[in-house]
Amino acid sequence: MCTHDMNRKKDTISNLFRTVILVLCTILTGTLRAQSSYPADNPLIAGDTLVDRVKPKPAPDSIYIATDYIEIHFKLDKSDLDISYMGNGIALMRLERVIDSIGVDKIKEIEIVSQSSPEGPYERNVTLTEQRSKVMVNYMYRMFPDLKEKITVNKITEAWDNLSQYVEKDPNLEDDTKKTILDIIHSDELSLATKKSKLKNTLGENPKTGDVYKYLTATYYPVIRNSGMYILHIVEPTQLKPDTPFIEETSPSPSDIDYEPQQILPEESRKRPILAVKTNLLYDAFFTKDMGWAPIYNIELEYYPTEKGRWTWLLEYEFPWHSIPSKHQYLQMLNLQFEGRRYFKEDSHHSGHYLSAYIGANYFDFCFDKEYGHGYQGEGGGLGLGYGYVLPLGKNPETRWKLEFFIKAGIYYALYDPYDAGNPFAGKYYYDWHLEPERFRKRNKLYERYHLTGGGITISYDLIRKKVKNTKSK
Description:
The chain folds into two domains: 8-26 and 269-469, Porin (Beta Barrel), CATH 2.40.160; 50-256, CATH 3.30.1330.60. It has helices at 8-11, 88-102, 122-143, 160-169, 175-186, 192-201, 212-219, 221-224, 281-284; strands at 64-73, 107-116, 151-158, 205-206, 210-211, 226-235, 269-280, 287-288, 292-293, 298-303, 311-318, 321-324, 329-343, 352-367, 375-392, 401-420, 430-431, 445-469. The N and C termini lie far apart (71 Å). Helix content is 19%, strand content 36%. Strand 13 (329-343) and strand 14 form a beta hairpin.
């Protein structure tokens, strides 16, 4: 005879865990350091932008127009204004300081020029450029309402010209590599999609940078993903000494200004994932007619031994513990499973297709017979193989969130006993045994089957990450 505690429902794990809640931490990004590594008469320094270069030149007797420039950067495939990204907070403070020092009355025009890095579909970049322009216009309207009538917008979409300027001045790229890149960028015969494909697949490696395309996307693409603000303003005549030479000044439009790009070096360190936490959404949504929502509580941990390797190791624990004795409904299981996984591609950030092998053991008590209370209680174990696909949520390959689809199949053994409620039901269940009582032995039935043993849709989050130093490619 097996007995169910009528109060077990109040004391079980189901009262401790109703669902697995994953908390998305706000990723605080520091300001990328910027510096120029090429020789110039007036080299750029960390945090330098055109606001430090386009300075008004004195004129002796007449009013003239000067232009200041401030730049805001955006994350890959994003259009939200993140003040913690690449010094945006500092740039916005400088914008406010510049406008205050000039005065609204002396500002003739503020042109917002937005653009996207040349990767991904052109249609998506059109949308991103429009969204980034709108974000900056809304910001300017909110912060400087008196300047509404003086704000104009220019959308470049894909910043091919800026990219070519970076490449031309890069000391780390060989001349032949530079020529190949520039020929692709300036070709009139290639479509945009072909240009992107050639940059991605034909540049090869460079002695100083390693993979050239990865170098470009890590070093320059974040910089040209921006909205620049050209501030045209009136400068009053200045009193000069008699021997001060006069430099004739014209009034250029913002688009005529020679853009001197700043070189942003990759961060010195990054955070690589160590451990991910997961939950199977299909198990979490499990439902039966008589029990209603009866989630199969589950949690899974995936350990990444290396950053670019193919192998990972997983530990899965399932612990549903639901019971409705009055309806003879029991869904109770403790299942522990260990899995080794090998992804198809190396350096895939643990995403894409994979194969796995697993082994596990469990305890179970299942009963869904509302009329007779006929159920099964026992222990089992099994092993098998699995296949799945992991999809990063977002275009950033270092995203913490992933969605996974998988199936598993293998062999499963269980030793178990059937039981029923008896008639009438007195709160106790009886083993389904009709021979002499002295011959009864627990777990006298064997279940053996080769079949599908698991499947689902899992959402995962890289819970633990470790700070590691970036190294230069050789």
